[in-house]
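fold description:
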Amino acid sequence: MSKQSLKEIPNSITNKYQVIKQFGTGGSSAGTLLVSDRKKGQSRVLKYATWAGIGSSGIPWLRAQAARFIELKDILPKAVKDWIPNVYDIYDKNNLFYYTMQNYNHGHPLSFYYFDNPSKNINCFTNDINKILDFLSKYFYFQQKLNVPKDYIYKVHIEKIFYRLSFLLKREGIVYEKYIKNNTFRIGSRDCNDMVTFFSELMKSKNIIINDKEYLNAPFLINNYASTQTLKKLKPRFLPKYNHGDSTFRNYIKLTDRMVLIDIRGTNLPNNAPARVCIPYELGKMLRSFLLEVVRNNCFSIKISQFPNKQFNFIFNYQTQNKSVNNFFKIRSLLPSLFKRHDGLNEILINEQDWLMKSYFAEACHFLADASNRLESDMSGYQTIAYYLIGCQLLNDFNKIYF
């Protein structure tokens, strides 16, 4: 759940709305509330932020998001407009931005629905994923193709990873003050009173050991991808004008007859956040959805031996006795084949060489880039280190197969 209490919600919100429920934080620096308008009595979902956030995931993200929802509601065919929530009030003053949107009383975030109901047939989940791919392919990806900036891969992945990870290494700035300073960092049964020292030592280590296997550490491996030839191989052929942009499966609401897109990426974002992304970037978000939910539900354990030392040796295990965890591992293993069989994806990506390979690269990068963002809802740093280790494993596996 969110670390914020109800009394910390800005008065500009509570004066106008009665807060019914406060939702746990997502991947952004925003708060999400279920509210009722004090005058009209209507229930709405309200998203708000009081600062720029980690990597512009606060006020800039929500401002661009609300504008994108309004745009999509305008341009989509009438038959599918209900895939996009209505946006109502928008407030943008005095270091506070919020907007309210349609509330779906009987809806559930897609990945929550299946993680919380492990008895549901796996085929039902894959069918829902196919519905999402059908919608995105037909109504977003086919609309218009845009040129790709020359430095696209470097900007959206490599530079972003180093920028985000740098927050874990600094003893200054708002991220340090809010989430790191005077905060005990725990791994297994061991406490570290200085998170910055831990991550500084970790990222200096050229190799780390995870479950008795040695990996080239992420910063060193990422640097290898900065060459012109490698960036050229990973660069997409085009960017779609319309997409979801943050397409983890918790960012779709499951209703009985359709999905609803939430938490989409807007396009008017600062330079430290990509405004337009390619389809492999989006598919990488989908691939990431499964281990993301395992970590966010704390269905894992991490231990470290000889702590701290220069050769980091982690024991990193998942709760495989948990049926939801097992289901999500199975669906993740099925997803690449589902992508390859999808007619709409294959048609739009017919000239996109190695698009699945590029999606695997994006999946690994998403974990690394979002590691520091986990501090938003888990200040222990436990989920941050899990994301870091997963990203390191995936990137090493990717490198072994493709480079």
